[in-house]
Design brief:
single chain, alpha+beta, Rhopdopsin 7-helix transmembrane proteins, Beta-Lactamase, 5 domains, 8-stranded mixed β-barrel, 5-stranded antiparallel sheet, 33 helices, 53% helix, EAL_dom
Length: 963
């Protein structure tokens, strides 16, 4: 069982003592009977001494309690004292009735003594049980004490009457010659049980906070129980057990007296001493001097914890008046305070300024008149409180109040019910109310309805927990102007830490938010279309992919959009982009994201979409874009190429998905535009190869990987070689032969076509010069010019320089241009062609008939030759359409003064048809594949020999005919 700490010291002592007594009891009980233990010599005097001592202790117990009964002791204390007063009286009668004592009213006998003994023991046991059972209250009155004492005395008197005058009514407890009766022994065991019950109850009390000396009463109950045990063991009234029983009883009474004395005398005095010590400590800890003065202002006592608060040391002040130690003005104030206290009993609030060791300090006097005994002079208690810091704080608060009032930021102070108690001028300026209109009102008068209710709920949840809250509120001024405020509200606590007010700092951030919104718009949205840019698109992607990994990414590129800018101007192009963005956005779902990536490229994110859903969206978008658009007064038809990448199969990150979707879009471009394609691994491999080729091509010229081959151009009239077309070839050490159809577009895309084109032109002219120097007849070297090359400024000058460097006459060079190059910017093209033709350089149109030619421009360009594309030649012997086209080209060229050449001639039938229609020149596998320079040289020389043989044969035939 746990003992409460408040009982711990006394309980420890009681338990140790009871343990020692119990050990003694066991030893005496276990030892065999010794000679002399059945009859103790001189037992009667010993018995009288022990009983007298017990009676005296019981009387002292009563006397101690009864002497302080006017202190309104607890019921239980008076019950204990009165009960054991009765026990003492019964013990006194027991002592007088003992065998061998003089006659006490009736003759003394063992049975008479036992009856008084049992009565005393029963009263003591019942008293202890009752005291332990009843609650320990503090409401006993004088009337209760007298009534209780009278009741106990009446009970004692009744017991005396019964034992002295009617003993026959009582059962036998002792039989001479036989000893104690069973009744007597049983009675002793009952008494023992009662004492143990009292001990158990008191032990339970020791588990609670201390209200009385339960440990002392517990020891008394335990000692009495052990005493009763001895009285069940004796066989003779003078044996050792009887003597020990009386001894234990005296010890029990001693513990009882000690418990009573501690509770009624020692404990109050200890509490009083503790209170005095605490009071003294409090007085010593007072930071303010406490003085005692008489009517004349003389110092009778001086107490202070800080001598620096006194004008002079305390021992010097004693016996001197305030006039003797203070300046006259301050002394007058002090005497006025004493006079006020004499009249009203107290005086407060008077302030004096004194020069103390710490410097000049201000003190506030609090004077109280003391209650004095008759005949004593009037005295006053004066507390001199140093208020220097308070005055300084008040001054600082005054300055702070002025600063808050004049602050450019609004300040608001409310009570706990959010009623406005203070506002500064900045608040009034912002809200446009007057102070009278807002004081006492709730700040909700400024609510605009634009702030979500959840913001207010969160604000009050924080403030009710004593925590500050910071956020933004959209409010409305008196005139209706809406503004956004950044608000910091925090609880204001008093010195005890209790929240008393709320203080709000506000700042109008309307312009700042508008500026931030503009910055947000500029940094996250396309300025032309208002669509998200790539940065914001990334945020949309991260959110969407966190919800569902399935997503389709569309790369939408407009077909031939540059033609619109070139023909109608950039303003018209911007209007077209704006119209296209609106069409795309209106035909996407709300959860889809559309971004203008750059130029005429758009990107759409389709969350939760698979291939079939993405295909449906693409088909719809192509249909929408195909509808005519009216821009700058002109009707424009637009198509688009769309590449599709599906997450997560085609990539888990946005960059990978965009790259793959763009790759798929370029495949659509290659296949003819105006469609959509899904990204495939084959495209990825193609893109990887294209990237590798593009990087390798940058070093191809320097590494000698490029070379030219030459395809003979043959005059149909007589079969002679009149020219060669220089064709570029690339042999890579790793990939081997790389097709021109594969690397030429790469060179055009990355700008390498310009230096490569110059190398081709220079190499071809050098080769022609070498052939001429080797004795070959004059021929025309045909060199292709790409659109990028033709667009380069200074092209005519560059060609002229190369002709001069190689020594090739201008008429030996023929530059081949495609229709697209010539018609892209006709005016500029005509100017460059004029400059080239002025130098004597021949010009031809390659792949004629595959584009959209303008005959008027063709006439202006003054082209020397038209090349019939091999797509018309391939089936020219069987396809009527190809025959008609080829025939038309030849006739048109002849009418415009141009010659024609057909490429891709591979069969005799093709050659015969072209010859019959009047085509001037041909080239193709029917005559020769493209040849290396040495082989071309041999081919030309063989052709010259054939032509010479034909000439000789013709000459012989002519001579024979003449003969």
């Amino acid at each position: 069982m746990l003992i409460h700490p408040s009982h711990q010291p006394a309980a420890s002592q009681s338990l140790r003592a009871m343990g020692a007594l119990f050990v003694l009891l066991l030893l005496v009980s276990l030892l065999p009977s010794l000679p002399g233990t059945r009859g103790v010599a001189h037992y009667l005097p010993l018995h009288m001494a022990l009983e007298t001592l017990a009676i005296v202790v019981a009387a002292l117990t009563f006397g101690v309690v009864w002497s302080v009964r006017h202190e309104r002791l607890p019921h239980n204390a008076l019950l204990l004292a009165c009960g054991f007063m009765g026990v003492g009286l019964l013990d006194f009668s027991h002592m007088l009735s003992y065998d061998g004592m003089p006659t006490f009213i009736t003759p003394s006998s063992p049975e008479k003594a036992i009856n008084f003994w049992l009565a005393a023991r029963l009263l003591g046991a019942l008293t202890l049980v009752t005291v332990a059972w009843l609650p320990w209250s503090t409401s006993a009155s004088r009337r209760y004490a007298l009534g209780l004492l009278a009741t106990v005395l009446a009970v004692v008197a009744a017991v005396h009457g019964l034992i002295l005058y009617a003993p026959d009514l009582l059962p036998r407890t002792f039989v001479p010659g036989q000893g104690l009766t069973p009744l007597k022994i049983t009675f002793e065991y009952v008494l023992m049980a009662l004492y143990l019950v009292a001990a158990a109850l008191l032990l339970w009390h020791m588990r609670q906070e201390r209200r009385f000396n339960a440990a002392g009463l517990f020891a008394a109950a335990c000692a009495m129980a052990q005493s009763e045990f001895f009285f069940t063991r004796y066989t003779g009234v003078t044996d050792i057990y009887n003597l020990l029983g009386h001894f234990y009883k005296v010890l029990a009474y001693t513990y009882l007296y000690r418990a009573t004395f501690v509770e009624t005398v020692q404990q109050p005095y200890a509490l009083l001493h503790s209170s005095q010590m605490q009071l003294q400590a409090t007085l010593d800890a007072l930071p303010d001097p406490m003085l005692e003065l008489d009517d004349e202002g003389r110092h009778l006592d001086v107490r202070t914890g800080h001598t620096s608060s006194l004008v002079t040391p305390s021992n010097v002040m004693l016996g001197k008046t305030v006039q003797e130690i203070m300046p006259a003005a301050d002394a007058a104030i002090a005497m006025a305070a004493l006079a006020e206290a004499r009249q009203t009993g107290f005086s407060r609030g008077r302030v004096i300024a004194l020069q103390v060791p710490d410097g000049k300090r201000w003190f506030e006097l609090s004077v109280a008149r003391k209650n004095t005994l008759p005949g004593q002079s009037q005295r006053y208690v004066v507390i001199s409180r140093d208020i220097t810091q308070r005055l300084e704080s008040n001054e600082a608060m005054r300055k702070l109040s002025q600063a808050v009032s004049q602050s450019p930021l609004p300040f608001v102070i409310t009570d706990l019910q959010a009623r406005i108690e203070f506002v500064n001028d900045a608040f009034l300026h912002t809200c446009e109310y007057t102070a009278a209109e807002v004081l006492g009102q709730n700040p909700r008068i400024l609510q605009s309805g634009k702030t979500p209710p959840a913001v207010y709920r969160n604000m009050w949840a924080q403030l009710c927990q004593g925590k500050p809250w910071q956020g933004e509120l959209t409010n409305r001024s008196k005139s209706g102007r809406e503004f956004t405020e950044s608000v910091l509200i925090y609880p204001v606590r008093n010195t005890e830490g209790v929240v008393t007010n709320y203080l709000a700092h506000k700042e109008d951030v309307t312009e700042r938010k508008q500026a931030a919104a503009r910055i947000q718009q500029l940094s996250h949205y396309d300025q032309l279309t208002g669509l998200p840019n790539r940065t914001l698109l990334g945020k949309h992607f991260q959110y969407a992919i966190s919800q569902d990994s399935a997503m389709a990414v569309l790369w939408i590129d407009l077909d031939r959009f540059k033609d619109v800018n070139d023909s109608l101007g950039h303003n018209a192009g911007d209007l077209l982009l704006l119209e296209i963005s609106q069409r795309l956005r209106s035909h996407l779902q709300n959860h889809d994201a559309l971004s203008r990536h750059s130029g005429d490229d758009f990107v759409a994110l389709l969350p939760h979409s698979d291939q079939s859903q993405a295909a449906k969206v693409c088909a719809k978008l192509l249909e929408v874009l195909a509808r005519p658009m009216l821009v700058a007064g002109q009707e424009i038809f637009v198509t688009a190429s769309i590449g599709i990448a599906i997450a997560p199969n085609d990539g888990e990150h946005l960059d990978a998905l965009l790259k793959n979707a763009e790759t798929a879009m370029y495949r659509v471009k290659e296949e003819g535009r105006n469609g959509y394609r899904f990204f495939t691994s084959e495209m990825q491999a193609h893109s990887a190869r294209a990237l590798a080729l593009s990087n390798a091509l940058k070093q191809a010229v320097h590494r000698g990987e490029l070379h030219l081959v030459y395809q003979p151009q043959v005059l149909l009239r007589d079969g002679s070689v009149v020219g060669a077309e220089a064709l570029l070839r690339w042999t890579h050490p790793q990939w081997g032969f790389v097709s021109p159809a594969e690397f030429i577009p790469l060179a055009e895309a990355n700008g390498l076509i310009v230096p490569i084109g110059e190398w081709v032109l220079h190499t071809a002219l050098c080769q022609l010069r070498a052939w001429l120097d080797a004795g070959l007849p004059m021929m025309t070297m045909a060199v292709n010019l790409s659109a990028v090359q033709f667009a380069q400024p200074g092209l005519p000058d560059m060609v002229g320089r190369m002709l001069a460097q190689t020594g090739v006459p201008p008429e030996g060079l023929e530059l081949e241009l495609t229709e697209a190059v010539a018609m892209k910017e006709p005016e500029i093209a005509a100017q460059k062609m004029q400059e080239l033709r002025a130098q004597g350089i021949r010009l031809s149109i390659d792949d004629f008939g595959t584009g959209y030619s303008s005959l008027s421009y063709l006439k202006r360009f003054k082209i020397n030759k038209l090349k019939i594309d091999q797509s018309f030649v391939r089936d020219i012997s069987t396809d009527p359409d190809d025959q008609a086209i080829a025939t038309a080209i030849v006739q048109m060229a002849r009418s415009l003064g141009m010659s024609t050449i057909a490429e891709g001639v591979e069969t005799a039938e093709q050659l015969a048809f072209l010859h019959a229609r009047g085509c001037d020149e041909v080239q193709g596998y029917h005559f020769s594949r493209p040849l290396l320079p040495a082989l071309f040289d041999s081919f030309v020389r063989d052709n010259l020999e054939q032509q010479a043989a034909k000439a000789r044969q013709a000459h012989q035939e002519a001579e024979e005919f003449a003969i």
